[in-house]
Amino acid sequence: MASSIHFLDIKGKPLLTKDYKGDIPVTALERFPLLVLQGSSDEYNTKPVFQDRGVSYAYLIHNDLYILALARGNVNIYSIMVFLRRLIEVLESYVKRLVEESIRDNFSIIYELLDEMVDFGTPQISDVQMLKQYIKVKHFKLEELINPIKALDNDQKVKVPMALTNSISWRSEGIFYKKNEAFLDVVEAINMTVTTTGQVITSEILGKIKIRSQLSGMPDLRLGINEKFLNAGLDRLNGGTENLTNDFGLEDIKFHQCVRLAKFENDKIITFIPPDGEFELMNYRILSPPNLVPLILVDYKLQNHSNTRLELFVRLKTNFKRRLTCSNLELLIPCPDDIDSPSFQTSATTSKCKIKYVPEKSAILWRFKSIPGGKDYSMIAELNLPSVKLQENEDQLKKITKKPIKVNFQIPYFTTSGLQVRYLRINEPKLQYKSYPWVRYVTQSGDDYIIRLK
Amino acid sequence: MSKLEKRLRNLFSSPRKGETFELKSGLASNYAMERKESIRRVIAAMTVGKDVSSLFPDVLKNIATHDLEQKKLVYLYLMNYAKTNPELSILAVNTFVKDSEDPNPLIRALSIRTMGCIRVDKMVDYMATPLRKTLMDTNPYVRKTAAICVAKLFELHSDSCIEQGFLERLVELVDDSNPMVVANAISSLVEISRFSNDPSVLNLSPVVLKKLLMTLNECTEWGRITILTCLADFETTNSEDAFHIMERCSPQLQHENPAVVLAAVKVLIKNVDQIDGEAKLTLLAKLSSPLVSLLSTPPEIQYVGLKNIKVILEKYPTILSRELRAFFCKYSDPLYLKLEKIEILIRLVNDSNATLLLSELKEYALEFDQQFVDRAIQAIGQIAIKLPSISKKAVDILYDIVATRPEYVINEAIVVLQEFLRRYPVEFTSSIIPIIADLSIQDFNNSKAISSYIWIIGEYTSKIPHLESKLQRVAESFLEAEPSVQLVSLTTVCKCHLFKPTAQTQQVLQKVLEHATQKVDNSDVRDKAFIYWRLLSLEQEHIQKEVILTTLPKLDTIIPLFPTSVLNELVNEISMLSTVYEKPGRDFVNTDDANRYFNPNIQSRRIEELQLMAKREIMDNTVKAEHLLDFDDGIEEDGLSGPNSIGINELNELNDLFSGFNVSPSPIE
């Protein structure tokens, strides 16, 4: 497995290093920036896995950091990279945002985690809730200063959670809440490529069910989802590809490790003992959902006045039921890099929306705090281009019509896939307490809800 | 000056300056908090790459503490300098051994884990006893750590690891009641068998197999990967066993960790060939959605996932044919990912989805990244050559693209058109030739494109307008061209002359042949020119035509596929680096790597010698550090004070450390 893990800044300068096997020469790390930059002038295009002088490099880019693993021989690279991703998640639960600064400030806890999570290159544990029980965020307490001996005593109590190596490694015994509640969030992110005429080119729904559990003891939960949805999922699992009676187009369901997978496959029942706190119970993916219409329609026209002045006409329509409300609707409309005194007009009242030019993204941002369904607004943006560079302007114009309009939105109390939660049964065999499940639905844009311009 | 006076002067002299000194005094402070803070600062300095090895004895003195965090930091320091100063770390043995018997399992595990990371040969003797104890610890957390430690010991000193019977112990641990211990024992055995190149270390008996299948559902995600990978290597001999294994592993395809999913996919792929007929198809169909789910990851991981999908697709080309859309490039994908997705797309294409893919590829060809545009155009050629049913459409699309933005695409387009003509020599000449007609050799900027252009001229002499002037240009640039272009130019010029023997072609031919035989230093080009020249002077036209106008074999596909033997090896190595590099492990793993990073000098010394070396090293470092610190210290000191006296103090303190050195190496059984 991995011989060492490194954190480097975007220039390739090492920030923190954890060596597991000692079989990588020091020069290997020194060569990393050279190798990454050599691949191409744009560092983002260098392949994330490559070999040099017998050492294999694999990295992820995260917030201007390289998280790099070095290895020798033919190792399971996929699991190494998945682990690096998990490592980032764990670290971010400790330090909020993993950046150069936070690595410097928290080096000792990061070392501790790296030591605990991996041994001799083999990943051991990556469960945040468990790790937090014996690797604690340290902060000075007044008590410690006044009474160091007592503080020492406290530290002595740090023990490995018994559950860590058990088969239910994600939950400790003896958790207690006064009020037992479980909050269930169904979140569906929509990725879609739509043309300005409303034709859908690709679409997918990435759904997930998140649970925040505040339950005592070792509760056994059973989640009921509408039969139709489940059947569609099972049908796919068993490879029933041609069977398009499946109304949902459900591709794939993935479960958190607490769900009894064999039970689901055999009996169609989702049962589990949840970890404490927040986690993602399941996620699913629906490709080209047959009933999904574009929720936001955008029409776009561009008028070019001899390469010195541009007029953009954008029309927006919220294509869903009137009783629903969409919040934080944002349209990022591409425009040339260098524009002058932009002016905007819109058919919506100015209190409802804001339009501004965002130079760092080379785009115009049109934004609604909230907008109900069935509405129709339009906007005209007039942009002046620097008159000295006519040829350049023309090239730029060609380019911006290839860039898509990016749309961000959120529609609460609404799902598009047809998934419904029927019930969440909570049963703790010993304590037998009363508990309250809550369910919430929201549909939002994914990373790729875009309008392709022609 | 009396001794007392000197001492007093030393006492009241201004404090020494410098970070090292500050840390040194901090580490020796009377207050626990201050000592701990100093250790933190030492580690901070180490993290940014400063050499703080001179503080070794001072840090080491803080190892005996009840503060877990402090202990961890000291251990970290030890591990770090174990690599560069292995002789120093021997000094800590005593504490390690004591810690391995601590009542707190966390500390027992910590000590055995850290001990294994100190790569000094002599450490082996001291490790044996604690390792044996911890392997039988009552706490599973300690056992699972000890299991890994056996692999560490093996890589350090395999002989003694075998002599002491640790391998047998490890095999026993496979039968442990705790899932995590089992997983780590397996992981350790796999590592050992990889290191020693001896597959027999991990003997997969039916009993072990049963144990693994049972443990699979109970361990952590990382343990599952280890076990699944191990199961994939189990060679089943009959369909019953294979079916059983697949049945037990297939629920893992729904795991949220994509690495578990891929490991489970591997188990299925390795076993599915044992089964025939309908059942096999059902099993293969099960793979499609888990494979597609590998795309719901960050781009870097997706990239590795796609490389694996490519291997699997070549083995079983039909399993993903319904999933074409999932592999469409996203606008925000980084380039390396887009290129990899196109690799998958062209392998997934069939008659029913080809039209969809063509229009998608056309979109890509109209983007602005040159490499991506080139690849998209190439892909259009690849799928059109694979599937005759869409060839007409593909040509039309190419025509459109070339018409809208010639400057961007012409180089790649001409190569594709050339390949097109080699697959469909007559069908599309009426649409392709007009594209060529207006172009001249100057419109291209790479030799592949130029060669393709020249080849087309030679092949379709009768249909090309203004043939003579085009040939003239070819002849003019002949000397500056690459050898590959020169070779195809020769053929084309000869062909044209055979078809259209005019004064002009005669002249061009003469010029090219002369250049090639007299001025070109590439022997292939020269030889080819001589052969043609001789042929042309034979006056036997049928022989000339037979040789020069010979038709090339028709292309079937231009999608490069792995040779079968390589493919089979790659399938065995799914999820490993070999799938990313697209060559079997044995091709890039250097077997000499087994003799890893070792310093033979240090290995062969006896322990006393190491102690001596350690002392000397610390003294040298201290002296050096003191000198550096003294440079702005105005007070001149004489005789005994100054660096030497400190050195002696240091030595006394060290003696304390050494005197505690009472653990004797366990006798080798």
From TrEMBL, chain A:
Cellular component annotations (GO), alphabetically ordered: clathrin adaptor complex; endomembrane system
Keywords of the record: Membrane, Protein transport, Transport
UniProt-annotated location(s): Endomembrane system
Key word Ribosomal protein present: no
The MHD domain, residue ranges: 179-452
Annotated PANTHER family: AP COMPLEX SUBUNIT MU
Protein name: BA75_04456T0
UniProtKB/TrEMBL annotation, chain B:
Function text: Adaptins are components of the adaptor complexes which link clathrin to receptors in coated vesicles. Clathrin-associated protein complexes are believed to interact with the cytoplasmic tails of membrane proteins, leading to their selection and concentration.
Localization of this protein: Endomembrane system
Example of a GO biological process term: vesicle-mediated transport
One term under GO cellular component: endomembrane system
PANTHER family: ADAPTOR COMPLEX SUBUNIT BETA FAMILY MEMBER
Example of a GO MF term: clathrin binding
The entry's keywords: Membrane, Protein transport, Transport
Stated name of the protein: AP complex subunit beta
Residues covered by the Clathrin/coatomer adaptor adaptin-like N-terminal domain: 17-538
Transport among keywords: yes
Family designation: Belongs to the adaptor complexes large subunit family.
